[in-house]
Amino acid sequence: MKKYGLLALRIIIAVTLIQTLRFKLTAHPDSVYIFTKVGLEPIGRIGIGIIELIAGILLLINKRAWLGAAITIGVISGAVIMHLTSLGIEINNDGGILFLTAVFILISSIVIFYTQRKSIPYINKKKEIKV
User: Fold this and answer.
1) Sequence-ordered alpha helix ranges (H) in 83-131
2) Which residues 6+ apart lie within 8 Å of 16 measured at CB?
3) Backbone φ/ψ region at 126: left (φ over 0), alpha (ψ -120 to 50), beta
4) Among 16, 59, 94, 124, which residue has the least CB neighbours within 10 Å?
5) 89-95 LR contacts (CB < 8 Å, sep 24+)
6) Nearest to 113 by CA among 52, 61, 53, 70
7) pLDDT interval class at 123 (50, 70, 90)
8) What is the DSSP-derived secondary structure letter of residue 130?
9) What is the pTM of this model?
10) pLDDT confidence bin for 119, thresholds 50/70/90
């Protein structure tokens, strides 16, 4: 059950990241507003969208899920920090949905990264000592 729960969580995170890509790449007014407010419009909007696409794809690849989670942690940490500093919790009367989604994705990505930590190359690999 744990295995399928973690797989479902990876899929939810990946779908969310990839689904929001259309807002970033089509210059949706809400995306433009957010990235303008934090001084990253348009390069940051497009760049972060591409990074989120890569993270979403990696989350769906079993042996690379750790890398997708790590990238997601980095990107979404930035989003949470922007919400807490310059954007605010509520954006354009959304009731805080964007912020709550970012927090959910951040926590979920940390869980995925932790559970996938043994998949990281060169970590937890025992070295043979030749005598």
Assistant:
1) 97-115
2) 101, 105
3) beta
4) 124
5) 91/30, 91/33, 91/34, 92/30, 92/33
6) 70
7) confident
8) P
9) 0.89
10) confident
